[in-house]
Amino acid sequence: MNKDPIRCQFVTYIRALLNHGLTLTFLQSIKQGNDWNYLHALSDIDKLNIERKEKLKASVKWVERFVEMLHFYSSCACCEAEKCGLSCQACGTRTVEKVVQLFANEGYDYETLEPEEMRYTGSGSPMPAVEYLVCQTCAKLSLTYHKLHHMRYILFQKCEDRIETVCSNNSDLSSEQVVETCMRSSKWINSIASEYMEIWRKIELDDF
């Protein structure tokens, strides 16, 4: 096993989300029970993720509304834009090359991941989806920023998908056995961990 402390904590983070995917109360219960092992991993990984997210944000000059929308919508996609000669709607300086699409089916509480009614506190009523015409640089960085901001939710969705796959093949497993089966899939865990750790590493090295 890789003894990198960050990777080890990330694996514990994934285990917590797998347990939460089966109970939908696990994150609340470890907080109420003051489970140091899980809480320490959740806190440290979230702290590292926020630090990298804020460093990335500090490197760009996005209009406030664009940042608000990246926070508000939990899903994000990107596609090519038609040549139009317009200025980027995020930074206002470079020429449009991409379309960033933001959408969501529901809101969520970051701490507990409980579904919430989508509520927007800014001006104007939110749409089910929005599009921004952006430059190449802002497209790349906004996708990364969105992935960091919604990390816990995105990872939870991956865990739910994995649980569904395991349960569909082994319907008689207990909750504990489902978690352990998921955790034994080193390829799956490593792919998730490596994705985020590579993002954090590149931001730390200003390679983004």
TrEMBL record:
**Pfam families (UniProt xref):** DUF4211
Source species, domain of life: Eukaryota
Ranges for domain DUF4211 come to 3-112
Q: What is this protein called?
A: DUF4211 domain-containing protein
Species per Swiss-Prot/TrEMBL record: Gnathostoma spinigerum
